[in-house]
Structures are given as structure tokens and as C-alpha cells.
Amino acid sequence: MQQNLKASITGIGSYLPKKVLTNYDLEKMIDTSDDWIVKRTGIKERRIVENGLTTSDLAAKASLRAIKDAKVSPKNIDIIITSTITPDHFFPSTSCYIQRKIGATRACAFDILAACSGFIYAIAIGESFINSGTANTVLVVGAECLSKITDYSDRTTCVLFGDGAGAVILQKSRTMHEIISTNLAADGSQTDVLIMPGGGAKNPASIESVRKRMHFIQFRGREVFKLAINKLTNIIKETAKKNKLELEDIDLIIPHQSNLRIIEATMEKLGLPFEKVFVNIDKYGNTSSASVPIALDEARKTKRLRKGSIVMLVAFGGGLTWGASIIKW
Ligand code: ACO
């Protein structure tokens, strides 16, 4: 019966800008090297949005691909939920721009902010709307133009980030990829370790805020590094346990692509082989909210997702926030 079915992923799409910024390009801009970046992060190149395009442009392209994949019409969409830390504007929401650009005229639309974990948070919200019967078709988007808030004169941050977008359609389905459950967490005592301090109510844009470069991403790299490994390890264990699964039952982990060493250390702590994790950080860097849906799309295209397999999406980011979602593929 339709009522007993749970939210499932019925379509996936992603979009990466064409322009590539390689480590060799960065060597010409700052005091760094391809060798350092690859060894410390696993990143070889990242994509950068073309001049004049915005987060909602990338998001709309990814959304139209997900819509086509799900074989629905934009007019079927009831709700658009977008996770982004680089909205086109503080307001109106990026979701409203996406609604217009894809012609989803019936949909209500809003954004959420949970930094790099935002796509998992957005999935949890979309899943609840579907499971409660409030909506039949939800578009969940993770999209970022991180190049717009990256300080390309700061070698400690600028090597990490890239632009891109990913999207999924959620619906009830008898045959498609059911979201078994989503587990979310936050720790507001650590707001300072990963932050863009300028532009909000605390430090509104001013000559001073621009002079102090407050409108760029700032982080305490080593602290974030350790926190990320601990939180990711714990949430993966916790989410498996809540669902009465052993870690070995998970066929593929699709993590937020933050740093290859964070991903490797997490897998090591869990005692899981590296073959069980999907990695594409070498090509795109850290795209925050967009990284999990882009990786999900690529995992499917490269046939890493088999029917019936247990897949875990997992992310950690500013806030702090973290979360994991289990899907039966
Ligand atoms: N090129 C060359 N040298 C560099 C560069 C660079 N791009 N950046 C830093 N260095 C130097 C430093 O100045 C330092 O030099 P020193 O020893 O003379 O002082 C040395 O390299 C080591 O610096 P560390 O900061 O200790 O390097 P580390 O191994 O910790 O790597 C990194 C830095 C990659 C930022 C890492 O800490 C990290 O990935 N942290 C977490 C990432 C993060 O915060 N992501 C934000 C999003 S949240 C998320 O996605 C989880």
C-alpha cells in the first residue's frame, strides 16, 4: 500500500562548472605546490563557476537532471529544499530562484543552513515531508559557489574548495532506493572553528569587515581535522547501531569530501576497508553541501551502487553539524 511506503530517492542529478583550477594553477597564485596539496588533502583540481553564474544556476542544472532521471515534471514538485552556505543572496532564498529557473511553479521553496552537513539535514527534512504524507515529490538540492567566499591569497584555506551542485528527487516508491533513516547532530559550543565571520547581523558588511577579510571562509584546520574524524566515526557507528546493522553490513559509505586524509583516518578507525568508501575529492575538492549529492551521482554512474546494497551518506561541517543517512539501494 502507498501509505506504508517510505521516502525513496527516485532521481539524481549533478552539475559541475567546466572551468578547472588545478594545483599547478594555484602554484602560480600562492606559495604552495601540487605535491603539498595532494599529500595533505588528496585534491588535484577543483571546478570554478564561470563569471556571471551563481549558485542557483548550478543548482537548476543539477535539479533538471534529477527531475529528468526521476521521470517527473517540474510541475509535480511540491517542495524545494536547498542547502547552501553560498546563497545567491541572503534573501530571497536560493530555492525561490531555482523554482523559477526550473519552472516548478507549484512548489513551495526554502533554504536550510547546516554547512557541509546541509545536504543530509535537507534529506531528513524532505524525508519527513514525504513520510508524513504532506508532500508527494520533494526536490532536495546541495549547491555551492565556494569560490565566491574563498580567500585566494590565503594558502591555508584556498586549496581546499570548489564549486558544484547536486540534487535528488524524493518520492514514495515500491522499487527505488528507500531512505531507511537519517540521524542528525550538532554542537553549538564549537561555532568558531569553522566560520565566515562577516556579512551577518554580528559583523554587517562594512569597510572594516572587508579590510579584515571577514567575508571569506576561516577555519582552524588542525582542530577541524580531528573533530571531523571523531564525529564522522561516531555517527557512522551510531547510525548503524540504531538500525541494527553491523559496520560490515554497510556496502558503501559516501562521505562529504572534506579531505582525503579525514576520510582515510575515519575508515581506519572504523576498521573498514578503503574499497567501502566513495572518493572523488581529487577532481572537485571540498564543495560543502554539494559534495555528497555529486558523489552519489558519480557513484551511481560508475556502478558502485548495486540493487539491494546498504549505502550510508555521511557528512560533518561548520556549526558544528554532522549527520548520516542510510539508504537501501
Ligand atoms: N601549501 C604549502 N604549505 C602550506 C599550505 C599550502 N597550501 N597550507 C599550509 N601550509 C604549511 C603551513 O604554513 C605549515 O607550515 P609550518 O609548519 O612552517 O608552520 C605546514 O604547511 C603544515 O600546516 P598544517 O596546517 O599543520 O597542515 P595540515 O596537515 O593540518 O593540513 C589542512 C592543513 C589541509 C587545512 C588540514 O588541517 C585540514 O584539512 N583541515 C580540515 C579541513 C577543513 O577545515 N575544512 C573546512 C570544511 S569542513 C569539512 O569539510 C570537514
Strand order, largest beta sheet? 5-4-6-7-1-8-13-12-11
Radius of gyration equals 19 Å
* Gap between N and C termini: 20 Å
Shape by Cα distribution: globular
Instruction: Give the total of beta strands.
Output: 13
Determine the fraction of residues in helical runs and give it as a percent range.
25-40%
CATH superfamily of the largest domain: Thiolase/Chalcone synthase
Residue fraction in strands: 15-25%
CATH architecture of the largest domain: 3-Layer(aba) Sandwich
State the CATH topology of the largest domain: Peroxisomal Thiolase, Chain A, domain 1
Number of structural units classed as domains: 2
Unique ligands:
acetyl coenzyme *A
Structural class by helix and strand composition: alpha+beta
* Poorly predicted tracts of residues: none
User: Averaged pLDDT, please?
Assistant: 97
CATH class of the largest domain reads Alpha Beta
Count up the helices.
11
Q: Could you characterize what this model shows?
A:
The chain has 329 residues and is an alpha+beta fold. It has two domains: 2-175, Thiolase/Chalcone synthase (Peroxisomal Thiolase, Chain A, domain 1, 3-Layer(aba) Sandwich); 180-328, Thiolase/Chalcone synthase (Peroxisomal Thiolase, Chain A, domain 1, 3-Layer(aba) Sandwich), CATH 3.40.47.10. Helix content is 34%, strand content 23%. The chain has helices at 23-29, 34-41, 55-70, 94-102, 118-131, 155-158, 207-211, 221-242, 260-270, 281-284, 291-301; strands at residues 7-15, 20-22, 45-47, 79-83, 108-112, 138-145, 163-172, 177-186, 194-195, 218-219, 252-255, 310-317, 321-328. The chain has a nine-stranded mixed β-sheet with strand order 5-4-6-7-1-8-13-12-11, with helices on both faces. A two-stranded antiparallel sheet has the order 2-3. Strand 12 and strand 13 form a beta hairpin. Helix 8 crosses helix 9 (260-270). The longest helix is centred in the last third of the chain and has 22 residues, at 221-242. The mean pLDDT is 97. Bound molecules: acetyl coenzyme *A. Residues 32, 36-37, 40-41, 116, 155-156, 159-160, 194, 219, 221-222, 224-225, 228, 256, 258-259, 286, 316-317 line the site of acetyl coenzyme *A.
